[in-house]
Amino acid sequence: MDKSQIELLGDNHIATSVKTPMRADAFDRSDDEKIENIQSHFYKIMEELGLDLTDESLSGTPYRFAKMYVKELFYGLNPNNKPKISTFPNTYGYQRMLVEQDITIDSSCEHHFLPIVGKAHVAYIPKDKVVGLSKINRLVDYYSHRPQVQERLCLQILTDLQETLETEDVIVMVHAKHLCVSSRGIKDKESFTTTLEYGGKFKDDKLRQEFYGLLENNFKE
Ligand SMILES: [Zn+2]
């Protein structure tokens, strides 16, 4: 791919697949080994930019950067870090939608490695299984902490919840600001992006309207 194509793909935020593209040997090395390697690579980047790494304020940056990448921003790449989502039988027989809204999205764009920040709103209609509410937040957090494309993030949350809850009746909406749009390129500070994915009963327009209505009413409070 030539450099203009690389720029174009990034600015259009095109994802190539629903699964996060991973190498087969992604986890052959331990976190500590990764931190050590990334630290030396980032040291070289800083040096290339002309920074004096002997400066007290800068000298620890390569390590801080490497640790932040492996342990914080991209912890969600490693399936071992996936939160345990235990489900419970739907003993109440609750059959209406349950909405979990304003879940924090703290992610990063895979084209520029800059933050994506926003909110996710998730609803599902239980069949035989329900989950603890905070588990939805944890799942959103996990999939957010990868280099992402917003459309894929939305889909990954949806498909995981559909599998976990054993129902197609799930809807996921994500509103987010992309720092690669606000701080570089077009430098638009105000715009944000909305993505929506749903299945099962949420294909019914009336049910989606009910979901939007609930979100709107709750926003006003
Ligand atoms: Zn980007």
Automatic annotation (TrEMBL):
Metabolic or biological pathway, per its Swiss-Prot or TrEMBL entry: Cofactor biosynthesis; 7,8-dihydroneopterin triphosphate biosynthesis; 7,8-dihydroneopterin triphosphate from GTP: step 1/1
Enzyme class: hydrolase
Reactions that this protein is recorded to catalyse: GTP + H2O = 7,8-dihydroneopterin 3'-triphosphate + formate + H(+)
Keywords: GTP-binding, Hydrolase, Metal-binding, Nucleotide-binding, One-carbon metabolism, Zinc
Homology family: Belongs to the GTP cyclohydrolase I family.
Assembly and interaction partners: Homopolymer.
Protein name from the UniProt record: GTP cyclohydrolase 1
Designated gene of the protein: folE
